[in-house]
């Protein structure tokens, strides 16, 4: 066997939340061959499998009974390029922000609004990551994955990925059946950059920038994110812990009679997005803390770990927030973070 199966490994350094967590088994995956070997070993030994990339959008239990795969498949290729666009093929283990920085350096338009999102490239399509008016599915053309049962490598086109708000086929029909190994992106060279998201627009306006360049958008996004999100090197966090709820517009209109300052974003098809951070701020407040877990003092949507807690304690705090928001507004918040149970097969 080419891969090494490690036992009883501490995983706190492999997630941005940094909670105390151990895994029964761990394998470090740097190729599709290693991935196939690890899955074969897990099937033979009848253990559950959990995939970790950058560990930025996951909450681990204090102990995971199964095999954790640390995905480190690294590659960056230009598949095709002309005067209008470039097609890239990126390994699942590549750092997301480093990819965005590379595209900006080369003048390839599209991903600059997604700067400084923690995690790996392989996680991007699963979550359909988005920020500041851009979602990654706009630029994904294909995703390669390994089927966990057949061990076959498959390509799936963008249209088949069933992308939605922080959602995709990889969280539904292909959950626990597919492990992403590569992602293809097509990025234009002369497209209009997107600078109309409210907080981004205000930041640029205060900087006196009326017609921002791609580099200025990239820099602005970094500065805005740094002002609102904690540095995970010093304060554990998964970023936004809950999804912004999508509600029927008529229901939101009724809420506005009771809460006229509720923060909302009109959507299509009779729905309105409500800012989860606003709801949490009103229900429990920024900087609210229970033990070693709390809301971030700059953004209530972010749950932070002050050190010494485990995933079970963070989960209890998240449950508390959900109950407080439900009691005040009648709205059920859904976790954006993937919450892992002790022995579930969440590949």
Short key terms for the protein model shown above:
8 helices; Uridine Diphospho-n-acetylenolpyruvylglucosamine Reductase, domain 3; Uridine Diphospho-n-acetylenolpyruvylglucosamine Reductase, domain 2; 347 residues; 20 strands; four-stranded mixed sheet; single chain; Uridine Diphospho-n-acetylenolpyruvylglucosamine Reductase, domain 1
* Main sheet: strand order: 6-7-12-10-11
- CATH class value of the largest domain: Alpha Beta
Shape, per Cα inertia axes? globular
What's the total helix number?
8
Strand content: 25-35%
Quick overview:
The protein is an alpha+beta fold and 347 residues long. The protein has helices at residues 32-44, 96-105, 123-127, 198-206, 214-228, 249-258, 276-283, 311-329, and strands at 6-10, 22-29, 49-52, 58-59, 63-71, 76-81, 85-91, 130-131, 134-135, 140-147, 153-157, 178-188, 236-240, 246-248, 264-266, 271-274, 289-290, 293-295, 302-305, 338-339. The protein has three domains: 6-71, 2-Layer Sandwich (Uridine Diphospho-n-acetylenolpyruvylglucosamine Reductase, domain 2), CATH 3.30.43; 76-188, 2-Layer Sandwich (Uridine Diphospho-n-acetylenolpyruvylglucosamine Reductase, domain 3); 236-330, Uridine Diphospho-n-acetylenolpyruvylglucosamine Reductase, domain 1 (Alpha-Beta Complex).
Task: Describe this entry's structure for a reader.
The chain is of the alpha+beta class. It has three domains: 6-71, Uridine Diphospho-n-acetylenolpyruvylglucosamine Reductase, domain 2, CATH 3.30.43; 76-188, Uridine Diphospho-n-acetylenolpyruvylglucosamine Reductase, domain 3 (2-Layer Sandwich), CATH 3.30.465; 236-330, Uridine Diphospho-n-acetylenolpyruvylglucosamine Reductase, domain 1. Helices cover 26% and strands 27% of the residues. It contains eight helices and 20 strands. It has a five-stranded antiparallel β-sheet with strand order 6-7-12-10-11. β15 (264-266) and β16 (271-274) form a beta hairpin. α4 (198-206) packs across α5 (214-228). The radius of gyration is 20 Å and the shape is globular.
